[in-house]
């Protein structure tokens, strides 16, 4: 997703591997901030802090989520493909297939799209449902004839 490797975070980076800029910041600042200000409380003893809790995987997840958001921000039309893929999984573009089951991410992207671009008219609303069905029929015929994927476009709200 991201072309800038300095903004990747590997929670399980080997000591022999050089740290990226985000890894340096995350390990030095973010982890310490969480340990001191937002410690992980013990699951079975809520009054006890889990000493030396590893916040690295959480930071790695946050870095990946940030990359996903950046990807959709740089190409708002990708969200149309995710919405179409949710509705027609068999016709989902392979490049967005990993996103169609992530309900929270889709909700976040829809809210961001609304905020930044006015939002999409979504199926099953009357303005979007027929477009989805027609596109699915055309795409099925087109792909069966050996054609390449044709992107779906929903109208703005």
Summarize the structure.
With 157 residues, the protein is an all-alpha fold. The chain has five helices and no strands.
Describe the structure.
This protein has 157 residues and is an all-alpha fold. It folds into two domains: 1-73, no CATH class; 75-157, no CATH class. It is 50% helix and 0% strand. It is built from five helices and no strands. α2 crosses α4 (103-117). It is elongated, with a radius of gyration of 21 Å.
List the helices and strands and how they pair.
Elements: H1 21-37, H2 56-74, H3 77-87, H4 103-117, H5 129-144
Helix pairs in contact: 2-4
Give keywords.
single chain; 157 residues
Radius of gyration: 21 Å
Based on DSSP secondary structure assignment, what is the total number of beta strands? 0
Uncertain residue ranges: none
Order of helices and strands: HHHHH
Helix content: 40-55%
Q: Which sheet architecture does the biggest sheet show?
A: none
The CA-CA distance between the termini, in Å, is 28 Å
